[in-house]
Write a structure and sequence with these properties.
The chain has a domain at about 60-185: Sandwich (Jelly Rolls), CATH 2.60.120.10. The N and C termini lie far apart (about 70 Å). It is of the alpha+beta class and about 220 residues long. The strands form 2 sheets. It has a 5-stranded antiparallel sheet with strand order 1-2-9-4-7, with no helix packed on it. A 5-stranded antiparallel sheet has the order 6-5-8-3-10. A hairpin with an 8-residue loop joins strand 5 (about 130-135) and strand 6 (about 140-145). Helix 3 packs across helix 4 (about 210-220). The protein has helices at about 5-20, 185-190, 200-205, 210-220; strands at about 80-85, 95-105, 110-115, 120-125, 130-135, 140-145, 150-155, 160-165, 170-175, 185.
């Protein structure tokens, strides 16, 4: 191959690589978006439709009530008050959302993941034991920290993470998330409480449990 041919080929490869680097899919804003040809049956365009700018009001960017404590009288002892595009329309396309998390004494926000957002957590009251687990590729490493009032911790996007109130008094935290609709998958609920249930033989083998134990858990979470 001549020097001229080599330079010409290199230019083509560089042009193709530049095109690929500059072309990308938008981040998903919902769990799935099945393609459809008929616009009459279309619901979303990977998120929400936009309001006519001439009809936009200040109220579209306003949410009230994040100061109100959530009810933590439940099985896990916590309550999440989320401010998402669903209840604050002005968040549409901005890529951010907010959550207030209340914890009863020894309550927890159980292991879960946000498929579309990283999270930054600020402890306003109490003491929390928090952590996340890295992916299989990184050896499922556990990163944990005890947080006190005023401390901040970050959970990378997609990582399974948790918070546990290790104090004898209620705790309060606020979380910022990098998506208007970060989504949440609570691990135990998703695995043992899916609708319809996952075949218990699959879960028994995956978790190395007796089948009757899996069926017991499916009844607990399925209810």
């Amino acid at each position: 191959m001549t020097k001229t041919s080599t330079l010409f080929l290199s230019a083509i490869v560089l042009a193709v690589a530049t095109h690929i680097a500059s072309a990308y899919d938008p981040s998903p804003l919902q769990d799935f978006c099945v393609a459809i040809d008929d616009p009459k049956n279309m619901l979303f365009v990977n998120g929400r439709f936009c309001k006519n700018p001439e009809l936009v009001k200040a109220e579209d960017f306003f949410f009230s009530g994040i100061n109100i404590p959530g009810n933590t009288d439940n099985a896990v002892g916590s309550n999440v008050t989320a401010v998402l595009v669903d209840n604050l329309p002005g968040l549409n396309t901005l890529g951010i959302s907010l959550a207030r998390i209340d914890y009863a004494p020894y309550g927890q926000n159980p292991p879960h993941t946000h498929p579309r957002a990283s999270e930054i957590l600020f402890v306003a009251e109490g003491t929390l034991y928090v952590g996340f687990v890295s992916s299989n590729q990184d050896g499922n490493r556990l990163f944990t920290k005890v947080l006190n009032k005023g401390d901040v911790f970050v959970f990378p996007i997609g990582m399974i993470h948790f918070q546990f109130n290790i104090g004898k008094t209620p705790a309060l935290a606020f979380a910022g998330l990098g998506s208007q609709n970060p989504g949440v998958i609570t691990i135990a609920n998703a695995v043992f409480g899916s609708d319809p249930p996952i075949n218990p033989d699959v879960l028994a083998k995956a978790f190395m449990l007796e089948k009757n134990v899996v069926e017991f858990l499916q009844k607990r979470f399925g209810a």
